[in-house]
Amino acid sequence: MTMTERTGLLIGAQGVERLQSSFVVIAGVGAVGGYVLEGLVRAGVGHIRVVDHDVFDETNLNRQLLATRDTVGQSKVRTAVERARSINPDIDIEAMDVMVSADTVEDILSGGPDALADAIDTVEHKVALLRAAMAHGIPCFSSMGAALHLETQMIRVAPLKRTKVCPLAATVRSKLRDTDTGSITCVYSEEPPLLRPGTRDAHGKSVLGSLPTVPAVFGMTLANEVIKHLLQD
User: Fold this and answer.
1) CB–CB of 155/221 below 8 Å?
2) Measured distance between the N- and C-terminal CA atoms of the chain, rounded to whole angstroms
3) How far is it between the farthest Cα atoms of the chain?
4) Contact 127, 100 (CB under 8 A)
5) Among the listed residues 143, 123, 146, 139, the one whose alpha carbon sits nearest the alpha carbon of residue 209
6) Alpha carbon separation from 123 to 16, 199, 214 (Å, rounded)
């Protein structure tokens, strides 16, 4: 039995070939993005570019699939590449150890990807990435805020302009109001964020409470939306 046999029973040989010939960019391989990578690799997507400029630390162990005691201190993208190749040695996978920003988005999106899976949470960089992808006609699949939630049953999929409740989605929508955001599919939660006193990391970034389960559902849902898009005629 081959890796793609079970998948092929569902989507057929043509579907398997379509996934194998597809190229997806994953921006961010942390709590949500690690599960996006897992879903796409196991589905048989043939060409993936992973983008992240961070390393794993102990605070990632509670929710990030790629974070283990052995990977603490290691580059997230290099760990992602190793994980992908351990599942599918034939995958064409690229690691871009760069920060997503207005200065790097053109390189990140180069080569004509079939889809972008956005799993970053810094608003300025997220908006720059989505804006550039839309300008290039690249279908966007974007994760909104997965932290501060308990209820997986409240996770939804909708175009950005139809999202509700999620503060991150509202902010991104506002910053992209001058563009046609119809090509952005969002995974978000309609559960009001459970606000708790937070902390800040060494870089001044807010550290938000999160379970292991909710980001995992976000990530696999995002991966599933990408897969369905790639399989469309």
Assistant:
1) yes
2) 27
3) 51
4) no
5) 146
6) 35, 18, 20
Does position 200 have pLDDT exceeding 70, yes or no?
Answer: no
CA distance 40 to 56: 21
pLDDT at position 207: 79
**Structure tokens given for 17:** 């070939």
Distance CA(77)–CA(75), nearest Å, equals 6
Instruction: Compute the distance between CA of residue 120 and CA of residue 144 in angstroms, rounded to an integer.
Output: 9
What pLDDT digit, counting tens, does each position of 36-56 carry?
A: 999 999 999 999 999 999 999
Using DSSP bridges, classify how beta strands 115-118 and 155-159 pair: parallel, antiparallel or unpaired.
Answer: unpaired
216's tokens: 């995992």
As a whole number of angstroms, the distance between CA 70 and CA 173 comes to 39
